[in-house]
Specification:
The protein is of the alpha/beta class. It contains eight helices and seven strands. It has one domain: 3-Layer(aba) Sandwich (Rossmann fold). α4 packs across α8. The longest helix has 16 residues. The protein is globular and about 45 Å long.
């Protein structure tokens, strides 16, 4: 996809066309209503796996990786990986609601259909987001631990953009999204996170294989910089 028409693709996840100020206000509300998440997530739960206790899920049935990224260049690695996996259902864990919006807009800049789940989107839009993820065309769903829907078996890849720091959290995410289907779990880790990676390997009793992208598959730093500037401009309209 050429860089010359990338900016035209920036839009609100789940919609088409440029981002309007009105829609920006809708996105902004999502970052201010964190206390409502637990109640509204119940509306998004369509099917749930059978309850599992403690750490009973065997994560070794999944393909577990760590993706070594440069500390201040994680967006470049994220976009490059999602570009490589284009068309495959991807479930992304981010740390905050603001980050779900930011990552979705970054991917939109590059023409990828990404949808964030956030508290103020409401029941109908929440169902629409899940339906679009399950059947297309939006094959990238970005959310946080608190808003993660139950059982999304369509996901082929789980990307931990923010690395879980405990085995319990690691297992919880997989159990929440895909307890029965084998999928790739790719954990973003900078040089400062390698201690956490080692801890997870020890606690889970599994190795995390290193995931590599060849340099030719990496998006150029200039394109990432342009995307960051445009998304920053858009998000500043919410302030």
């Amino acid at each position: 996809m050429g860089a010359q028409n990338s900016k035209a693709m920036v839009g609100v996840p789940g919609t088409s066309g440029p981002i309007s100020a009105a829609t920006n206000n809708t996105l902004a509300q999502g970052s201010k209503e964190d206390d409502e998440i637990i109640g509204k997530i119940k509306d998004l739960q369509i099917t749930a796996p059978a309850p599992r206790n403690g750490l009973e899920l065997d994560v070794s049935t999944h393909l577990n990786y760590y993706y070594h990224v440069k500390l201040h260049d994680s967006e470049r690695y994220f976009v490059s990986l999602c570009t490589k996996l284009t068309g495959q259902p991807i479930f992304v864990f981010a740390s905050t609601l603001d980050e779900t919006h930011y990552l979705a807009l970054i991917l939109r800049y590059f023409g990828m259909n990404a949808t964030p789940l956030y508290s103020s989107m409401g029941r109908s839009n929440g169902f629409d987001a899940l339906r679009e993820f399950r059947s297309g065309p939006h094959r990238i769903l970005i959310t946080t631990d608190r808003l993660c829907p139950l059982h999304v078996p369509e996901a082929d890849h789980i990307l931990n953009f923010n690395l879980p720091t405990t085995a319990k959290n690691y297992i919880w995410r997989i159990r929440r999204v895909s307890p029965d289907k084998k999928c790739n779990v790719i954990n973003f880790a900078s040089q400062h996170d390698m201690g956490v990676v080692n801890h997870l390997e020890t606690a889970l009793k599994i190795p995390l294989a290193k995931y590599d992208l060849e340099e030719s598959a990496m998006v150029s730093p200039m394109r990432i910089h342009n995307a960051q500037m445009e998304v920053k401009r858009v998000m500043e309209l919410n302030d």
